[in-house]
Amino acid sequence: MRVDILGITVDTYSMQETVEQIRQAVDGNIPLRVVTANPEMIYASERNIKLKKLINSADIVTADGIGVVWAARRLGVPVLERVTGIDLVQALFPIAHEGKWRIFFLGGKPGVAEQAANQVVLKNHGITTEAMHGYFSLEEEPDVLEQIRHFQPDVLLVGLGAPRQESWIVEHPRLASVSVGVGGSFDALAGIVVRAPKCIQDLHAEWLYRLWKEPWRWKRQAVLPCFVIKVLGQEFGFKTP
Ligand code: UDP
């Protein structure tokens, strides 16, 4: 089931259901494109038709953040829980370990994807990884593509930043069974960015913690009140600027 939030159709899948869909796609070698849609992306897509099409044409669009879970509830199609990029990949790794998957990590500053992949393999040694940073030029792109094709990943994790990663995945299809845009997840996996303690995550205040730790994000988070007003506009049928 999907819920329409400002024109973006978000899946109501739980984390477990999302992981199961990905597992089936890898087992059956069925192409699957996953977008983790946060409020900033949903809000931006209102004014960006290309982005809206990119997101809505994905096979799975997850509710990335408590703002999206809240919006779904307001609009009468509840989503059980948030399925963020970092939580999704962390839930996938044990399954990938069991299934001996090949995972390619693309993105982040030089060295970060390798560090993230090494950390993941330490705990999940059934996984085979390869990594490449996300600061390559257009001229270098063919080599990056060749490296990924040669590796033949089951899963391609793309952390080039949203929404660039979403269009990059669409522009380069069939590199892996499953492709997921994961934003800054490699920074967290590598330990460069420390996530909010579990109790803060459980209070649904991780966004506040990130704002405290990375105050330069305020500009991005400043759209959150606008997102809320737009969602209320959709719920009660009033026009918003
Ligand atoms: N990034 C990249 N190449 C670029 C620009 C950004 O690999 O040309 C990476 C950056 O190093 C960081 C991630 O993209 O790891 C940030 O993505 P986003 O802002 O979507 O992450 P969020 O913080 O929202 O998870």
Write a concise keyword list for the protein shown above.
6-stranded parallel β-sheet, binds uridine-5'-diphosphate, alpha/beta, 241 residues, globular, two-stranded antiparallel ribbon
> How many extended strands?
8
Mean pLDDT: 95
**Separation, N- and C-terminal Cα atoms:** 29 Å
The total count of helices amounts to 13
Strand order of the largest sheet: 4-3-8-7-5-6
* Integer-rounded radius of gyration: 17 Å
Query: How would you sum up the global shape?
Result: globular
State the order of secondary-structure elements, H for helix, E for strand. EEHEHHEHHEHEHEHEHHHHH
Summarize the structure.
The protein has 241 residues and is α/β, with parallel strands linked by helices.
Describe this structure in words.
There is one protein chain. Helices cover 50% and strands 16% of the residues. By secondary structure, the chain is of the alpha/beta class. It has one domain. A six-stranded parallel beta sheet has the order 4-3-8-7-5-6, with helices on both faces. α1 (15-28) packs across α5 (85-99), α2 (39-45) packs across α3 and α2 (39-45) crosses α13 (223-236). The longest helix is centred in the middle third of the chain and has 15 residues, at 85-99. The chain binds uridine-5'-diphosphate. Residues 107-109, 134-135, 159-162, 183-184, 186-187 line the site of uridine-5'-diphosphate.
Compile the SSE list and pairings:
Blueprint: E1 2-5, E2 8-11, H1 15-28, E3 32-37, H2 39-45, H3 49-56, E4 60-63, H4 66-74, H5 85-99, E5 102-107, H6 112-123, E6 128-132, H7 141-151, E7 155-159, H8 164-171, E8 178-181, H9 185-189, H10 198-202, H11 206-213, H12 218-221, H13 223-236
Parallel strand pairs: 3-4, 3-8, 5-6, 5-7, 7-8
Antiparallel strand pairs: 1-2
Bound molecules: uridine-5'-diphosphate.
